[in-house]
Amino acid sequence: MSVDLATVKRVAHLARIAVNEEDANRMMGELNAILGFVEQLSEVDVSGVEPMTSVTPMAMKKREDVVNDGDKAEDIVANAPNSDRNFFLVPKVVE
After folding, report:
1. What pTM value is reported for the model?
2. Which residue ranges make up each domain of the chain?
3. How far from 81 is each of 42, 92, 93, CA to CA, in Å?
């Protein structure tokens, strides 16, 4: 797949980027080089290669999932304009 000058100008227009003729020609070469590299990557045989999350083998750090109240109710309502026994007080909006 290769990109021509009209495609570069159309993409620039869609991206709302002002591109003059000289820049469009330079971008055409750069985009074609990028697409050529991507095509080269698709030729690599990766059958039998497991997907990896890191270049070094490592186990994910996990913590036990424990439900608690956080014990921060007083800190949470500290800046509230109105509160009562660690609950937010809000004005009534429904009659």
Report:
1. 0.49
2. 5-42
3. 60, 15, 17
Alpha-carbon distances of 9 from 22, 36, 37, 68, rounded to whole Å: 11, 20, 22, 57
Q: Exposed, middle or buried by CB within 10 Å (0-12, 13-18, 19+), for 8?
A: buried
What's the CATH code, domain 5-42? 1.10.20
Q: What is the pLDDT of residue 54?
A: 80
Question: pLDDT per residue over 30-67, tens digit each?
Answer: 999 999 999 998 899 989 888 887 888 888 888 888 88
Reading the block at residue 17, the tokens are: 């980027």
Q: How many helices (H) and strands (E) does the chain have?
A: 3, 2
Q: Whole-angstrom Cα distance, residue 82 to residue 88? A: 6
